[in-house]
Amino acid sequence: MRGLMQDRPLALPHVFHRAEQLFGHKPIVTATVTGEVATTVAEWAVRVRRLATALDTLGVPADGRVATFCWNTAPHLELYMAAPCTGRVLHTLNIRLFPEQLVYIANHAEDDVVFVDRSLLPVFLPLRSQMRTVRHVVVIDDGADHPLPDDAIDYDELLASSDPFEGRFEVDDENQAAAMCYSSGTTGNPKGVVYSHRSTLLHSLITLTVDGLGLSERDVVMPVVPMFHANAWGLPYAALLAGSSTVFPGPNMTPKGVLSLLERHRVTVTAGVPTIWLGALPLLGGYDLSGLTRILCGGSAVPRSLSEAYRTTLGVPILHAWGMTETSPVATVASPRTQDDALDDDARADARVRQGQPTPLVELRVVEPSSGEVLPWDDKSSGEIQAAGPWVAAAYYRDESGAGPSGSSQFTEDGWLRTGDVATVDRYGSVRIVDRTKDLVKSGGEWISSVELENALMAHPKVVEAAVIGVPHERWVERPLACVVVEPGESLTPEEVRAHLEPLVPRWWLPDAVEFIDEVPKTSVGKFSKRTLRDKFAGYELPEVDPAGRA
Ligand code: AMP
Prior knowledge:
This protein is of the alpha/beta class. Among the domains are: 13-253, Rossmann fold (3-Layer(aba) Sandwich), CATH 3.40.50; 443-536, 2-Layer Sandwich (GMP Synthetase, Chain A, domain 3). Helices cover 27% and strands 24% of the residues. It has 16 helices and 25 strands. The strands form 5 sheets. It has a 9-stranded mixed sheet. Strands 7-6-5-3-4-8-9 form a 7-stranded mixed sheet, sandwiched between helices. It has a 4-stranded antiparallel sheet with strand order 17-18-19-20. Helix 1 (12-22) crosses helix 9, helix 2 (41-57) crosses helix 3 (74-85) and helix 7 crosses helix 9. It is globular and about 75 Å long. Adenosine monophosphate (AMP) is lined by residues 183, 185, 230, 298-301, 320-325, 329, 355, 419-421, 433, 436, 525.
């Protein structure tokens, strides 16, 4: 017997029409080069409708790729909606990637048109002639004064000359592509993750659940995480669905810029990688952030010291979540659970820096990589975490690499995503990421978690940032090298660093060497770039350390 309910597509037009109909009065604020621009959802919706017509006028094919090269802004949000609601595919280009990667990605995705913020023209224009399929460049004026190329189309003029599309947007097939985002976390060329309308809508819905991110109509949401990083973790769509007010920080991502926006607009929910919150930490005292209720943080492990510093300074602990571009990205959230109530403060702080339980509809398993054995959830057995669910990728776009049913070794025979993250899971299903497979330090036959060492290092009051990499070692295969950034005006010696670590980690984990550096290099999305550090310290000569010290 079949169910007798309406078979309505789970598609983004619902989000658009809901926002337009119910939340027209809600504000959308963008910080631009020349100041703040305030608009409303009603005004935004008219522009989305104009943009829909404009895409037709530009001759963008039915499922053409509409690329964006933009900061977090309201016009970017217009593209977020107009492209998928008209059946096209939004393709957010990561403005911080290397030029050759950007060219590769635009060609691989076959981008038809690129919408570029004017302030980003100097980065984009040198690449334009190599992007073979791009027919139009539309420039969004964000107040910067860079000269426009002759054939550029002005975004505002384009909208002004386009009549608003009338009626309802329709996307009948919920499995149609809505957006794509390339993941550069894997080896080789970046891989295209293609989100469907269904996956995006379901992912947005789950972020509205209380144990998800709990987004509501009363929230003021400011995604600091870029809109080119896994759709700003789904927040723009989720905020529209919930009816939240939104604030977009534009190009001003400095700690001061971010903090003053949070204060001025009494933002309640914000999100960014740990680097953002680390950078803002020393300035927190100067701002009234009493509006904040959730500071979502993921993308890499949240150091315990950071989580605790926010809890004690603001009274709001960081809300830790884990995921990947391939998982849309939210897969686990560390919302406080009933079982945490019985814990003492210390254990609660530990619980907060776990990556948390899988959200509804996401399934996880921990697998021993060589045997494929599924490991128990005893919080001791560590293995690769694999994920399945309706917003988890099943394949990469036009994947030409590797084996496996979907063309890539990143998917298992039975269709699960291999995340490349090593984790343990406790009996309540709460995940603790030990490391990326490739970042674990292989010492003798044992593994050292670079993440745990970094956590311990960053707990030192004079340490701003610290990253640990494995350096080849004749006898032990690899040994840890700690790269440490010391607070300005302070100093530390390797011996002091080691003395600090001694009570916190097993003795054989103690780094063989400590290098003091000015800054930990960052990836295009603001995470520690271990690859750059490994290149920098290639051929590093470790000092002879008494092996007894590692027993
Ligand atoms: P990306 O696709 O760029 O978002 O990168 C995804 C990867 O970031 C994951 O596979 C993890 O290695 C890492 N990651 C994301 N969130 C976390 C987290 N909360 N803790 C530790 N690592 C994380």
